[in-house]
Write a structure and sequence with these properties.
Elements (H helix, E strand, L loop, with lengths): L10 H25 L4 H18 L1
Length: 58
C-alpha cells in the first residue's frame, strides 16, 4: 500500500489543518469516553482531569 501525504505550505493552511486535526482528536476522545462502562459523573471527572492535565502541560 502506498500513502501520499501532502502538507500545506502556507501558514494559514497549516493552522486550518491543525484546527481540523484538533477537532477530530477531540471528537474521537469524546466517543471513547462515552463508550466507557461507568457513570456520567465518573466520565465528567475523567474529562475534568484530562483538561487539568493538558492545561498543566502548557
Amino acid at each position: 500500500m502506498e500513502v501520499f501525504l501532502i502538507f500545506p505550505k502556507s501558514r494559514q493552511a497549516q493552522q486550518e489543518l491543525s484546527q481540523e486535526l484538533a477537532k477530530f482528536q477531540s471528537e474521537q476522545a469524546l466517543k471513547s469516553i462515552q463508550k466507557l462502562p461507568c457513570s456520567t459523573e465518573q466520565k465528567l471527572e475523567l474529562v475534568d482531569a484530562a483538561v487539568k492535565h493538558l492545561k498543566g502541560q502548557k
